[in-house]
TrEMBL record:
It comes from the Bacteria. It comes from Mameliella alba. Residues 32-189 form the Glycosyltransferase subfamily 4-like N-terminal domain. Keywords: Transferase. InterPro entries: Glyco_trans_4-like_N (IPR028098), Glycosyltransferase_grp1 (IPR050194). This is Glycosyl transferase, group 1. One of its GO terms (molecular function) is hexosyltransferase activity. Pfam families: Glyco_trans_1_4 (PF13692), Glyco_trans_4_4 (PF13579).
Length: 391
Protein backbone atom coordinates (compact mmCIF):
# COMPACT_ATOMS: atom_id res chain seq x y z
CA UNK A 1 0.00 0.00 0.00
CA UNK A 2 1.19 3.55 -0.78
CA UNK A 3 0.15 5.54 2.26
CA UNK A 4 1.15 8.74 3.98
CA UNK A 5 2.59 7.16 7.07
CA UNK A 6 1.18 6.38 10.46
CA UNK A 7 -0.56 3.15 11.46
CA UNK A 8 -0.74 0.31 8.94
CA UNK A 9 -4.12 -0.19 7.33
CA UNK A 10 -5.08 -3.36 5.45
CA UNK A 11 -7.32 -2.82 2.42
CA UNK A 12 -9.51 -5.49 0.87
CA UNK A 13 -9.23 -5.26 -2.93
CA UNK A 14 -12.64 -6.88 -3.27
CA UNK A 15 -14.61 -4.19 -1.52
CA UNK A 16 -15.86 -0.92 -2.96
CA UNK A 17 -13.19 1.76 -2.82
CA UNK A 18 -14.00 4.57 -0.38
CA UNK A 19 -12.98 8.17 -1.13
CA UNK A 20 -13.71 11.60 0.31
CA UNK A 21 -13.04 14.82 -1.62
CA UNK A 22 -12.30 17.87 0.49
CA UNK A 23 -12.61 21.45 -0.77
CA UNK A 24 -12.87 24.57 1.37
CA UNK A 25 -16.19 25.67 -0.12
CA UNK A 26 -18.64 24.97 -2.91
CA UNK A 27 -20.79 28.02 -2.14
CA UNK A 28 -19.43 30.05 -5.07
CA UNK A 29 -20.91 28.68 -8.28
CA UNK A 30 -18.45 30.81 -10.29
CA UNK A 31 -15.50 28.92 -8.80
CA UNK A 32 -13.98 26.23 -11.00
CA UNK A 33 -13.58 23.63 -8.20
CA UNK A 34 -17.29 23.95 -7.33
CA UNK A 35 -18.03 22.34 -10.69
CA UNK A 36 -14.97 20.18 -11.31
CA UNK A 37 -14.73 18.57 -7.86
CA UNK A 38 -18.42 17.72 -7.63
CA UNK A 39 -18.50 16.46 -11.23
CA UNK A 40 -15.44 14.27 -10.64
CA UNK A 41 -17.02 12.79 -7.52
CA UNK A 42 -20.21 12.01 -9.45
CA UNK A 43 -18.20 10.39 -12.25
CA UNK A 44 -16.29 8.22 -9.79
CA UNK A 45 -19.53 6.72 -8.49
CA UNK A 46 -19.98 5.05 -11.88
CA UNK A 47 -16.60 3.36 -11.38
CA UNK A 48 -17.57 1.77 -8.05
CA UNK A 49 -15.95 4.42 -5.86
CA UNK A 50 -18.01 5.35 -2.81
CA UNK A 51 -17.51 9.11 -3.10
CA UNK A 52 -18.66 12.26 -1.30
CA UNK A 53 -17.55 15.89 -1.33
CA UNK A 54 -16.89 17.51 2.06
CA UNK A 55 -16.88 21.30 2.31
CA UNK A 56 -17.48 24.17 4.69
CA UNK A 57 -20.18 26.74 3.98
CA UNK A 58 -23.83 27.65 3.72
CA UNK A 59 -24.95 25.46 0.82
CA UNK A 60 -27.63 22.88 1.60
CA UNK A 61 -26.34 19.29 1.83
CA UNK A 62 -27.48 16.95 -0.91
CA UNK A 63 -26.63 13.38 -1.97
CA UNK A 64 -22.87 13.10 -2.31
CA UNK A 65 -22.29 16.51 -0.72
CA UNK A 66 -21.55 17.02 3.00
CA UNK A 67 -21.48 20.58 4.36
CA UNK A 68 -19.92 21.56 7.69
CA UNK A 69 -20.21 24.75 9.73
CA UNK A 70 -17.29 27.11 10.23
CA UNK A 71 -16.17 27.85 13.79
CA UNK A 72 -16.71 31.60 13.77
CA UNK A 73 -14.86 34.01 16.04
CA UNK A 74 -15.04 37.78 16.45
CA UNK A 75 -11.73 38.08 14.62
CA UNK A 76 -12.35 38.38 10.84
CA UNK A 77 -8.71 37.54 10.06
CA UNK A 78 -9.05 34.20 11.86
CA UNK A 79 -12.36 33.45 10.13
CA UNK A 80 -10.64 33.74 6.74
CA UNK A 81 -8.80 30.47 7.45
CA UNK A 82 -12.14 28.53 7.41
CA UNK A 83 -11.64 26.73 10.72
CA UNK A 84 -14.15 23.90 11.21
CA UNK A 85 -13.87 21.42 14.05
CA UNK A 86 -16.81 19.49 12.61
CA UNK A 87 -15.01 18.94 9.31
CA UNK A 88 -11.84 17.89 11.12
CA UNK A 89 -13.73 15.30 13.16
CA UNK A 90 -15.56 13.99 10.09
CA UNK A 91 -12.26 13.53 8.27
CA UNK A 92 -10.89 11.63 11.23
CA UNK A 93 -13.88 9.28 10.97
CA UNK A 94 -13.36 8.89 7.21
CA UNK A 95 -9.69 8.07 7.77
CA UNK A 96 -10.62 5.49 10.39
CA UNK A 97 -12.93 3.88 7.81
CA UNK A 98 -10.01 3.56 5.36
CA UNK A 99 -11.07 6.27 2.88
CA UNK A 100 -8.68 7.77 0.36
CA UNK A 101 -8.65 11.49 1.20
CA UNK A 102 -8.45 13.77 -1.84
CA UNK A 103 -7.82 17.41 -0.93
CA UNK A 104 -8.40 20.24 -3.42
CA UNK A 105 -6.73 23.64 -3.07
CA UNK A 106 -4.34 25.21 -0.57
CA UNK A 107 -3.94 27.87 2.11
CA UNK A 108 -7.01 27.15 4.26
CA UNK A 109 -7.60 24.79 7.18
CA UNK A 110 -9.77 22.39 5.11
CA UNK A 111 -6.59 21.85 3.05
CA UNK A 112 -4.61 20.91 6.17
CA UNK A 113 -7.11 18.75 8.08
CA UNK A 114 -6.99 15.84 5.55
CA UNK A 115 -3.23 15.40 6.06
CA UNK A 116 -3.70 15.12 9.80
CA UNK A 117 -6.32 12.40 9.36
CA UNK A 118 -4.18 10.61 6.75
CA UNK A 119 -1.16 10.50 9.05
CA UNK A 120 -3.23 9.37 12.03
CA UNK A 121 -4.87 6.45 10.23
CA UNK A 122 -2.29 5.57 7.57
CA UNK A 123 -4.58 6.21 4.60
CA UNK A 124 -3.48 7.71 1.27
CA UNK A 125 -3.74 11.46 0.77
CA UNK A 126 -4.10 12.79 -2.78
CA UNK A 127 -3.65 16.55 -3.23
CA UNK A 128 -4.85 18.70 -6.14
CA UNK A 129 -3.16 22.13 -5.75
CA UNK A 130 -5.62 23.59 -8.30
CA UNK A 131 -3.03 26.04 -9.66
CA UNK A 132 -2.28 27.55 -6.26
CA UNK A 133 1.46 26.71 -6.42
CA UNK A 134 1.96 28.70 -9.62
CA UNK A 135 4.36 31.68 -9.33
CA UNK A 136 1.68 34.20 -10.25
CA UNK A 137 -0.78 32.73 -7.73
CA UNK A 138 1.87 32.72 -4.99
CA UNK A 139 2.53 36.41 -5.61
CA UNK A 140 -0.90 37.35 -4.23
CA UNK A 141 -1.15 37.55 -0.41
CA UNK A 142 2.47 36.36 -0.31
CA UNK A 143 3.07 37.06 3.39
CA UNK A 144 -0.10 35.31 4.53
CA UNK A 145 0.80 32.25 2.46
CA UNK A 146 4.29 32.13 3.93
CA UNK A 147 2.79 32.02 7.42
CA UNK A 148 0.34 29.23 6.50
CA UNK A 149 3.12 27.31 4.75
CA UNK A 150 5.18 27.34 7.95
CA UNK A 151 2.23 26.59 10.23
CA UNK A 152 1.02 23.47 8.47
CA UNK A 153 0.57 23.67 4.69
CA UNK A 154 4.08 22.44 3.93
CA UNK A 155 3.78 19.39 6.19
CA UNK A 156 0.33 18.68 4.74
CA UNK A 157 1.77 18.59 1.21
CA UNK A 158 4.69 16.43 2.30
CA UNK A 159 2.12 13.93 3.60
CA UNK A 160 0.70 13.35 0.11
CA UNK A 161 0.99 9.87 -1.35
CA UNK A 162 0.26 11.37 -4.78
CA UNK A 163 -0.48 14.78 -6.29
CA UNK A 164 -3.02 15.44 -9.00
CA UNK A 165 -2.11 17.99 -11.69
CA UNK A 166 -4.47 19.02 -14.45
CA UNK A 167 -1.57 19.90 -16.80
CA UNK A 168 2.18 19.36 -17.16
CA UNK A 169 2.84 22.96 -16.20
CA UNK A 170 1.40 22.18 -12.77
CA UNK A 171 3.85 19.27 -12.37
CA UNK A 172 6.61 21.87 -12.70
CA UNK A 173 4.96 24.01 -9.99
CA UNK A 174 4.81 21.00 -7.65
CA UNK A 175 8.46 20.10 -8.19
CA UNK A 176 9.53 23.74 -7.85
CA UNK A 177 7.98 23.70 -4.37
CA UNK A 178 10.32 20.86 -3.42
CA UNK A 179 7.63 18.17 -3.35
CA UNK A 180 8.78 14.74 -4.55
CA UNK A 181 5.67 12.51 -4.39
CA UNK A 182 4.33 10.99 -7.64
CA UNK A 183 2.00 13.17 -9.72
CA UNK A 184 -1.05 11.98 -11.66
CA UNK A 185 -1.56 14.22 -14.71
CA UNK A 186 -5.30 14.14 -15.42
CA UNK A 187 -7.20 17.12 -16.87
CA UNK A 188 -10.53 18.33 -15.64
CA UNK A 189 -13.52 17.05 -17.55
CA UNK A 190 -16.40 18.89 -19.17
CA UNK A 191 -20.07 18.23 -19.87
CA UNK A 192 -21.04 18.71 -23.51
CA UNK A 193 -24.15 20.95 -23.64
CA UNK A 194 -27.09 20.33 -25.95
CA UNK A 195 -26.98 23.65 -27.80
CA UNK A 196 -24.14 25.20 -29.77
CA UNK A 197 -23.07 28.77 -30.40
CA UNK A 198 -24.90 31.04 -32.85
CA UNK A 199 -22.90 31.17 -36.09
CA UNK A 200 -23.52 34.90 -36.57
CA UNK A 201 -22.72 35.93 -32.97
CA UNK A 202 -20.68 39.13 -32.71
CA UNK A 203 -19.62 39.04 -29.04
CA UNK A 204 -16.12 38.49 -27.68
CA UNK A 205 -16.71 36.88 -24.28
CA UNK A 206 -14.61 36.68 -21.16
CA UNK A 207 -16.31 34.79 -18.33
CA UNK A 208 -14.89 34.09 -14.88
CA UNK A 209 -13.70 35.77 -11.73
CA UNK A 210 -12.64 39.38 -12.12
CA UNK A 211 -9.27 39.29 -10.36
CA UNK A 212 -5.87 40.82 -11.24
CA UNK A 213 -4.33 37.37 -11.88
CA UNK A 214 -6.83 36.83 -14.71
CA UNK A 215 -5.10 39.49 -16.87
CA UNK A 216 -8.36 41.09 -17.98
CA UNK A 217 -6.70 44.53 -18.08
CA UNK A 218 -4.56 43.21 -20.95
CA UNK A 219 -7.66 42.08 -22.81
CA UNK A 220 -9.20 45.55 -22.41
CA UNK A 221 -5.99 47.14 -23.71
CA UNK A 222 -5.95 44.76 -26.69
CA UNK A 223 -9.62 45.41 -27.41
CA UNK A 224 -9.02 49.17 -27.41
CA UNK A 225 -6.46 48.64 -30.20
CA UNK A 226 -8.66 46.57 -32.53
CA UNK A 227 -12.27 47.56 -31.78
CA UNK A 228 -12.52 50.27 -34.44
CA UNK A 229 -11.50 47.77 -37.14
CA UNK A 230 -14.39 45.48 -36.15
CA UNK A 231 -17.33 47.83 -35.50
CA UNK A 232 -19.97 45.08 -35.47
CA UNK A 233 -18.31 43.28 -32.54
CA UNK A 234 -18.55 43.99 -28.81
CA UNK A 235 -16.61 42.81 -25.74
CA UNK A 236 -18.57 41.29 -22.86
CA UNK A 237 -16.86 40.74 -19.47
CA UNK A 238 -18.87 38.52 -17.13
CA UNK A 239 -18.19 37.42 -13.56
CA UNK A 240 -17.97 38.31 -9.87
CA UNK A 241 -15.58 41.11 -8.99
CA UNK A 242 -12.87 40.65 -6.35
CA UNK A 243 -10.80 43.33 -4.58
CA UNK A 244 -12.30 46.13 -6.68
CA UNK A 245 -11.26 44.62 -10.02
CA UNK A 246 -14.42 45.56 -11.94
CA UNK A 247 -14.16 49.20 -10.90
CA UNK A 248 -10.51 49.30 -12.02
CA UNK A 249 -11.42 47.74 -15.38
CA UNK A 250 -14.29 50.18 -15.92
CA UNK A 251 -11.87 53.07 -15.29
CA UNK A 252 -9.46 51.55 -17.80
CA UNK A 253 -12.23 51.26 -20.42
CA UNK A 254 -13.08 54.92 -19.88
CA UNK A 255 -9.47 56.12 -19.93
CA UNK A 256 -8.69 54.19 -23.14
CA UNK A 257 -11.96 55.17 -24.81
CA UNK A 258 -12.57 51.49 -25.60
CA UNK A 259 -15.97 51.21 -27.33
CA UNK A 260 -18.72 48.63 -26.90
CA UNK A 261 -17.58 47.02 -23.64
CA UNK A 262 -20.27 45.54 -21.37
CA UNK A 263 -19.88 44.27 -17.81
CA UNK A 264 -22.18 41.74 -16.17
CA UNK A 265 -22.17 40.06 -12.78
CA UNK A 266 -21.86 36.29 -12.34
CA UNK A 267 -24.15 34.08 -14.44
CA UNK A 268 -25.21 30.55 -13.59
CA UNK A 269 -27.18 27.70 -15.10
CA UNK A 270 -29.19 28.56 -18.20
CA UNK A 271 -28.01 32.19 -18.22
CA UNK A 272 -24.37 31.10 -18.27
CA UNK A 273 -25.03 28.60 -21.07
CA UNK A 274 -26.82 31.33 -23.03
CA UNK A 275 -23.82 33.66 -22.65
CA UNK A 276 -21.60 31.06 -24.33
CA UNK A 277 -24.11 30.37 -27.11
CA UNK A 278 -24.41 34.10 -27.86
CA UNK A 279 -20.64 34.55 -28.21
CA UNK A 280 -18.59 34.23 -31.37
CA UNK A 281 -15.21 34.07 -29.63
CA UNK A 282 -13.96 33.37 -26.11
CA UNK A 283 -10.83 34.92 -24.57
CA UNK A 284 -8.91 33.86 -21.45
CA UNK A 285 -6.05 36.36 -20.90
CA UNK A 286 -4.93 34.78 -17.58
CA UNK A 287 -1.49 35.19 -16.04
CA UNK A 288 -1.57 31.68 -14.58
CA UNK A 289 -4.10 28.84 -14.62
CA UNK A 290 -3.73 25.14 -13.86
CA UNK A 291 -6.51 24.31 -16.33
CA UNK A 292 -8.93 27.07 -17.26
CA UNK A 293 -12.35 25.42 -17.09
CA UNK A 294 -13.97 28.31 -18.96
CA UNK A 295 -11.96 27.49 -22.10
CA UNK A 296 -13.28 23.92 -21.99
CA UNK A 297 -16.84 25.22 -21.49
CA UNK A 298 -16.50 27.56 -24.47
CA UNK A 299 -15.08 24.86 -26.74
CA UNK A 300 -17.78 22.40 -25.64
CA UNK A 301 -20.35 24.97 -26.79
CA UNK A 302 -18.68 25.23 -30.19
CA UNK A 303 -16.86 28.56 -29.75
CA UNK A 304 -13.24 29.08 -30.88
CA UNK A 305 -11.04 30.46 -28.11
CA UNK A 306 -7.98 32.57 -27.47
CA UNK A 307 -5.88 31.72 -24.40
CA UNK A 308 -2.62 33.15 -23.18
CA UNK A 309 0.21 30.77 -22.37
CA UNK A 310 -0.61 31.26 -18.70
CA UNK A 311 -3.05 28.35 -19.18
CA UNK A 312 -2.19 24.90 -20.61
CA UNK A 313 -4.22 25.19 -23.81
CA UNK A 314 -1.60 24.61 -26.51
CA UNK A 315 -4.12 22.17 -27.97
CA UNK A 316 -6.05 25.15 -29.30
CA UNK A 317 -3.46 25.30 -32.06
CA UNK A 318 -2.83 21.60 -32.62
CA UNK A 319 -6.59 20.94 -32.76
CA UNK A 320 -7.11 24.05 -34.96
CA UNK A 321 -9.84 25.53 -32.77
CA UNK A 322 -8.20 28.68 -31.46
CA UNK A 323 -5.07 30.66 -30.61
CA UNK A 324 -2.51 30.12 -27.80
CA UNK A 325 -0.61 33.39 -27.43
CA UNK A 326 2.10 35.06 -25.40
CA UNK A 327 1.23 37.44 -22.58
CA UNK A 328 0.58 41.11 -23.21
CA UNK A 329 -1.82 43.37 -25.14
CA UNK A 330 0.10 43.05 -28.44
CA UNK A 331 -0.22 39.26 -28.90
CA UNK A 332 -3.84 39.41 -27.73
CA UNK A 333 -4.63 42.22 -30.18
CA UNK A 334 -3.05 40.26 -33.05
CA UNK A 335 -5.10 37.16 -32.22
CA UNK A 336 -8.29 39.21 -31.88
CA UNK A 337 -7.67 40.81 -35.27
CA UNK A 338 -7.14 37.41 -36.88
CA UNK A 339 -10.18 35.83 -35.24
CA UNK A 340 -12.63 38.65 -35.92
CA UNK A 341 -11.55 38.96 -39.56
CA UNK A 342 -12.45 35.32 -40.29
CA UNK A 343 -15.64 34.49 -42.20
CA UNK A 344 -18.45 33.16 -40.01
CA UNK A 345 -18.18 29.74 -41.62
CA UNK A 346 -14.50 29.41 -40.73
CA UNK A 347 -15.08 30.37 -37.09
CA UNK A 348 -17.97 27.87 -36.98
CA UNK A 349 -15.67 25.14 -38.32
CA UNK A 350 -13.07 25.95 -35.66
CA UNK A 351 -15.79 25.78 -33.00
CA UNK A 352 -16.96 22.39 -34.27
CA UNK A 353 -13.40 21.03 -34.08
CA UNK A 354 -13.13 22.27 -30.51
CA UNK A 355 -16.41 20.65 -29.52
CA UNK A 356 -15.31 17.34 -31.03
CA UNK A 357 -12.01 17.59 -29.11
CA UNK A 358 -13.82 18.13 -25.80
CA UNK A 359 -16.10 15.16 -26.44
CA UNK A 360 -13.17 12.90 -27.38
CA UNK A 361 -10.59 13.73 -24.69
CA UNK A 362 -12.38 15.48 -21.82
CA UNK A 363 -15.45 13.36 -21.07
CA UNK A 364 -15.93 12.80 -17.34
CA UNK A 365 -16.26 9.03 -17.68
CA UNK A 366 -12.71 8.51 -18.93
CA UNK A 367 -11.27 11.04 -16.49
CA UNK A 368 -13.03 9.43 -13.53
CA UNK A 369 -11.78 6.00 -14.65
CA UNK A 370 -8.18 7.23 -14.61
CA UNK A 371 -8.62 8.80 -11.17
CA UNK A 372 -10.09 5.56 -9.80
CA UNK A 373 -6.98 3.73 -11.05
CA UNK A 374 -4.79 6.25 -9.20
CA UNK A 375 -6.68 5.67 -5.95
CA UNK A 376 -6.40 1.89 -6.32
CA UNK A 377 -2.65 2.19 -6.96
CA UNK A 378 -2.24 4.39 -3.87
CA UNK A 379 -3.93 1.59 -1.93
CA UNK A 380 -1.52 -0.99 -3.34
CA UNK A 381 -4.17 -2.46 -5.64
CA UNK A 382 -2.73 -2.55 -9.15
CA UNK A 383 0.16 -1.30 -11.27
CA UNK A 384 1.16 2.35 -11.53
CA UNK A 385 -1.18 4.01 -14.07
CA UNK A 386 0.36 5.53 -17.19
CA UNK A 387 -0.84 9.00 -16.12
CA UNK A 388 1.38 8.95 -12.99
CA UNK A 389 4.88 10.41 -13.23
CA UNK A 390 7.56 9.95 -10.58
CA UNK A 391 10.20 12.42 -11.80
Amino acid sequence: MRSSGGADTVFDAGRSLLCRHIVASVDDEASGPTYSVTALAAGLQVHHVDCAVMAVGRRRPEPGLEIFAQDLTRLPVVNRFVISGALSRALDTAGKQGAVLHSHGLWLMPNIYPARAARRHGVPLVVSPRGMLGPEALAFSRNRKRVIWALGQRRALETAACFHATAWSEVEDIRRAGLAAPVAVIPNGIDIPEGTAETSARTVLHLGRLHPKKGIDRLVAAWARVAERHPDWRLRIVGPSEIGCREALERQVHDLGAPRVDFDGPLFGSEKRAAYRQAGLFVLPTLNENFGMVVAEALATGIPAISTKGAPWQGLETERCGWWVDHGPEPLAAALDAALALPDAERALMGARGRDWMRRDFGWDGIAARMAQVYAWCLGQGERPDCVVTV
